[in-house]
Every structure is written in C-alpha cells, then in structure tokens.
C-alpha cells in the first residue's frame, strides 16, 4: 500500500510538504505542488476519507435531508447540491427523513460527533423547529423550507409573492371564481402560497370562498383529482384553479377532462414548481418555475461558508411564471 512517505521520497520533499499539498495549504510553491502531484500519480496514490479525516478533522462529506425521495421537486435541487459539493471536493450523502423529528435529532447528534461536516435540510419548517436549538451553532443550513426569524441561514424563493403572481395571472385572464388546491400545511410553502392566493383575491376586491379551498394533505396527483372532482361538483364550480404543486395541478387536469370538460376552456389550471412533467403533459401546464438547481447550488455555498466558520446571510432567489396551454 502506497503511503505518504513513499510520495515524499519520489517527489524529493518532506512528508510535511506532502501533507500540506494534500490539504491545499497556500504556502506550498507551485513547482513543489506539481512535483508532489506527479509523484502521487506515478505511484497511484489515493487519499482515503478516513486518513484525511484523521489529519484534518473533516470528513469531506455533507448530508442532505430530503423529506420524500419520490417527490420530483427535490431531484434538481439534489443535482445542484451534488455539483456544487463536487466542485469543492466534498461528497454528498442523501437521507430520506420521512418528515421524522426523531430522524433529524439523530442527524444532529451525528453532526456533533463529526460523522460528516455539515447538513442541508429540506424538511418542513415545523420539523426543523424541533431541532433548531440543537443545531444553531453547527454547520446546518435550510433549503426551500426554513424557520422564519431563525438564525440558521437558508435559501428559498418568495413563495407568497409567487403564488400571488399566479393568481393575478388568472385574474388578468378574466377569471373571478378561482379555487385553491393546497397540500400539507405543516409546510411553510403551503402556508405562504395560501397567503399569496388570498393576497391576490383581496387586491382584486374578491371574497374568499370556503368551498373553493381544498386542503388535501399531500401532493400526489390522485389528491389533485379528488380535489378537482369536489370543486366541479359544486352548484357554482370555479372557472380556474391554482394548485400549490404541479402534481396536484396535473391531477386536477385529469379529473376535469375525465368529466367531459376542457382545459382551459371550462377550467383553467395553474401549478407550481415546473417539474419536468409540466412541459410534456397535455395540455402543457402553466406554472410557477422555481430555480431548483440554483437553490441546491446556493444552499451548498451557504453550507461551505458555515463549515468555514462564517454565518452567511440567507438568500431569496427569483421565480418565473411559465405560461403554457392549461391557463
């Protein structure tokens, strides 16, 4: 097995110099660094995570807490996290928490014991509230979901404003009977998007109708179908629906067309997130696009700054209304 001492002998330097090269120390001259790297390549030397951890107290591993692997919304965020992590010589680990407070507490304890260097959390803010006291001083950041007025840095969009923009678009198209299909209000995004819906109605001088609000407790498309069937069965059904997730919106479209009605002629539908299926479903879905890959990239950048001992400011990214055939 090739050791540091072998690299030092071939490169004609001390083992301390090899160690400084491995750790990216700025004091090493470029010519020396190149000689050490050439020696490592010729000897096929590989740095193990365990060895590096012993030298630096860093594992070069970071963990992402994902509440639901089956949700397509998180896939592009994870790609952004992974790409940014690799650029900085970190490995990304994934944990499906299942919205478990106990799981988050275990993760916090493992972070405190240096099993990995930091955590990006995407769990609901209600779950994060339970553990935030434990992790406030640790390398921990929130992505998409976050605890309002908390010191832990986060990256997100303005969900309330984005939802308001979606409903204002429907109002501008002439709709006055606009329904809301909401998911699980344990999530901050669900609360903020509901508030944005209300803001738009209030700005238009419209009263909120209780029978137009469907809270379905999840985002699976059958829940969107169920909500739409209930809305279409009303004596005065809505002419438009804002769904807080694309999967719910697609379910609503399926139920509408199954009833013999047309989208958007009989019911206009707007979603949220712009998951890949939104552009290929028929009719293609009008939706709010989140910069999901950028959310992941920014979250990793915040985490790396926390690992370096900084306390960076939170980041709010811009959203985009993507107009397609459904509304």
From TrEMBL:
Keywords: DNA-binding, Transcription, Transcription regulation
Keyword Kinase applies: no
CDD domains: HTH_LacI, PBP1_LacI-like
Protein known as: LacI family transcriptional regulator
Annotated ranges, domain HTH lacI-type: 6-56
UniProt-recorded Gene Ontology molecular function terms: DNA-binding transcription factor activity; transcription cis-regulatory region binding
SMART domains: HTH_LACI (SM00354)
Native source organism of the sequence: Piscinibacter terrae
Family annotation (PANTHER family): HTH-TYPE TRANSCRIPTIONAL REGULATOR GALS, LACI-RELATED TRANSCRIPTIONAL REPRESSOR
């Amino acid at each position: 097995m090739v050791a540091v001492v072998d690299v030092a002998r071939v490169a004609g330097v001390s083992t301390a110099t090899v160690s400084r090269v491995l750790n990216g120390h700025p004091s090493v001259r470029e010519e020396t660094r190149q000689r050490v790297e050439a020696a490592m390549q010729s000897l096929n030397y590989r740095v193990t995570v365990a060895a590096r951890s012993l030298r630096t107290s860093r594992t070069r591993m970071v963990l992402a807490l994902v509440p639901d692997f089956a949700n397509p919304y998180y896939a592009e965020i994870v790609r952004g996290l992974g790409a940014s992590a690799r650029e900085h010589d970190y490995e990304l680990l994934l944990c499906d928490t299942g919205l478990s407070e106990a799981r988050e507490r275990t993760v916090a304890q493992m972070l405190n014991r240096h099993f990995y260097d930091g955590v990006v959390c995407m769990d609901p803010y209600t779950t994060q509230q339970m553990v935030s006291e434990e992790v406030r001083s640790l390398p921990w950041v929130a992505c998409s979901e976050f605890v309002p007025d908390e010191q832990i840095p986060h990256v997100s969009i303005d969900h309330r404003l984005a939802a308001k923009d979606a409903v204002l678009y429907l109002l501008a198209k002439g709709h006055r009977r606009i329904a809301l299909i909401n998911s699980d209000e344990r999530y901050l995004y669900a609360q903020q998007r509901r508030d944005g819906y209300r803001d738009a109605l209030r700005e238009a001088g419209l009263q909120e109708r209780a029978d137009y609000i469907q809270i379905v407790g999840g985002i699976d498309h059958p829940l969107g179908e169920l909500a739409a069937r209930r809305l279409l069965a009303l004596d005065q059904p809505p002419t438009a629906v804002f769904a807080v997730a694309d999967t719910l919106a697609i379910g609503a479209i399926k139920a509408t067309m199954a009833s013999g009605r047309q989208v958007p002629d009989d019911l206009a539908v707007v979603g949220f997130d712009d998951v890949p299926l939104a552009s290929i479903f028929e009719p293609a879905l009008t939706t709010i696009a989140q910069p999901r890959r950028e959310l992941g990239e920014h979250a990793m950048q915040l985490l790396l700054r926390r690992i370096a001992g900084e306390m960076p400011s939170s980041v709010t990214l811009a959203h985009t209304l993507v107009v397609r055939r459904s509304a």
